[in-house]
Amino acid sequence: MKYMTVVLGVVSDEWSILMTDTRMVFKDMSNKEYDDSVVKLKSLNYPHGWYAGTGYSPYIDAFYYLANRCLISSSQQYLDAMAQVITELVHEQHHNISDILNSTCLRTFINEDQVYLEIFFIDQNNGQTSAYTYPKDQLLVLFPADYTSEMQSSLKQKYQFEEFRSDSFENIVEKLLNIFKEISINSNAVSEICEIGIMKKDGPIKKFSLSGNIHELIRKVEQQNYFANLF
Fold this sequence. Notes:
The protein is of the alpha+beta class. Helices cover 34% and strands 32% of the residues. It is built from 7 helices and 13 strands. Helix 1 crosses helix 2 (75-92) and helix 5 (169-186) packs antiparallel against helix 6 (214-221). The chain is globular.
């Protein structure tokens, strides 16, 4: 069985960021526990942004490929695709139902000149496919399974997850990278390779990605005017 691990996301009126690592965790394998070369951050059809997820890898990938192949855009179309994938996987892999039900997928996109971060999940109360638009200027972190509630609370308090409005874009990216670094250091389920998908609305929509060792990315971002060269 293969599992995705960590995702960070935040969105403002002008931009969105989706961040994940490259480690796929394996269970019930005697000779290998994980693979650090897995590309989890996936591009969506323009003008949509980026996609990532945590949980059961076959479900997360199947959901993405169906959504991207069919060129869907609305939340309801995503929910319909999600339900189709779940039905097919449950029929084929009924022993993995609990892993599928506990998986979460995210996408960033622009609609009518507004930037959004949307979460797709299965409501544990009624078993229905559900979508939730995440509030702006608040950090979302989907933690790996080995990150305890005490560790999560400490990290949230240290970086003030619920208020990012006052910082500049560059400072927010740097803060996200440092949060990622702490998680990667303290979790066996997270690699040191960080992938970042950014959409920025400043006249034309600008969409790009960064990838690399977390320590090297932090060093680059700390350089003055690093993002000015990208934009």
